[in-house]
Amino acid sequence: MLSLALFTAALVAPALAAPAPAPQGITLSNSATQAPITMCGTAQNIVLTDTPWIVYNMFYNQRQTRGSMCTAYSSVSKPSNGNKLIKWAAVTDIDYVQSTNNVPKGYTFVGLTQNLETRLSAISSIPASYDWTRTNSTAYKGNIAFDFMTSDTKGDSTSGAAQELMLWLEYTGGQLPIGWVEGPTATIPSLFGTSWKLYQGVNLDTGILVSSLLPDKMFTGSFKGDLKEWLNALVKVGVFKSSTFVNVGNAGTEPFYGKAVVNATLGLQINL
Ligand SMILES: *[C@@H]1O[C@H](CO)[C@@H](O)[C@H](O)[C@H]1NC(C)=O
Ligand SMILES: *[C@@H]1O[C@H](CO)[C@@H](O)[C@H](O)[C@H]1NC(C)=O
């Protein structure tokens, strides 16, 4: 099932994107016939029906932005010995404005549309690979992250009982997670080849608890791992139970300001 209950993660909370009228709304397509497309609208996206993905330009703070944020879909490939991969890019040209430098302007991402709304305990694996390069020609603030949502209620990603989980791979320009001021609530000594610190706090606009895992050593353009290990690590430190539902999952980048292109190749799927 396609979950449209997509969300955003933010230091300053966004409004949830309402479905917008065409041509910004959901567009169904087949990756075999879909030409590369650049989407710059506030909620412009494309569902690639023969893949596990939606590609989304969620420009939720466009009104606070001087500049543009676009998401470019390029192609889908299927290596003979592996899972499908999607090539896409986040293209941002956002002026630095003092009063909004701490406001994420949007989220450009690839989200899952398949095998969601499943209990974590019923998921066999979440194989993921995220390879990226970021080329910025001005000072840039933003991160590279996975972002999932869970709840003890199937399908819930908006109530106060839902939880948002972020796995930050890399961040620059001074971006900090919700809960930074209070300090880490847990440490995870060994996961995906590094140690991590967990920061937690409620996003005051959505009322949703955000649990962000930040690596002690940032990834430098390449990540590979089974994201079920991340979610299991959160179970182990008591964030939720393994009976919780995984309702949303995606990977992307949240720009605050700067002129940059993030070119990425992503593999991400839920195997039941
Ligand atoms: C890219 O962004 C980083 C972080 O803001 C900054 O330190 C660096 O100078 C930027 N590169 C250029 C060419 O402006
Ligand atoms: C990076 O993305 C931009 C925007 O889609 C594209 O023009 C460029 O060719 C990409 N570069 C690479 C190396 O894929």
Structure characteristics:
272 residues; mainly beta; Jelly Rolls; 4% helix; disordered N terminus; binds 2-acetamido-2-deoxy-beta-D-glucopyranose; carbohydrate binding; hydrolase
CATH architecture identity: Sandwich
Strand content: over 45%
User: Which word captures the global form?
Assistant: globular
**Tally of separate domains:** 1
CATH names the topology as Jelly Rolls
CA distance, first residue to last residue: 14 Å
Please state the CA-atom Rg, rounded to the nearest Å.
17 Å
Low-confidence stretches: 1-23
Q: How helical, in percent, are the residues?
A: under 10%
The secondary-structure element order is: EEEEEEEEEEEEEEEHE
| Computed structural class | mainly beta
Distinct compounds present: 2-acetamido-2-deoxy-beta-D-glucopyranose
Q: Count of helices?
A: 1
CATH superfamily: Glycoside hydrolase family 11/12, catalytic domain
Q: How is the biggest beta sheet arranged? A: 16 strands, mixed
Number of strands: 16
The CATH class is Mainly Beta
Give the mean pLDDT: 91
GO biological process, one term: polysaccharide catabolic process
GO molecular function, one term: carbohydrate binding
InterPro entries: ConA-like_dom_sf, GH11/12, GH12
Family: Belongs to the glycosyl hydrolase 12 (cellulase H) family.
Record the SSE blueprint.
Layout lengths: L27 E2 L7 E3 L3 E6 L4 E6 L8 E11 L7 E10 L12 E6 L5 E2 L7 E10 L4 E11 L11 E10 L13 E6 L2 E10 L4 E8 L6 E5 H10 L8 E24 L4
Parallel strand pairs: 1-3, 11-14
Antiparallel strand pairs: 2-5, 3-4, 4-7, 5-6, 6-16, 7-16, 8-16, 9-15, 9-16, 10-11, 10-16, 12-13, 13-14
The structure holds 2-acetamido-2-deoxy-beta-D-glucopyranose (NAG) (2 copies).
The site of one 2-acetamido-2-deoxy-beta-D-glucopyranose has 5 residues, from strand 6 and strand 16.
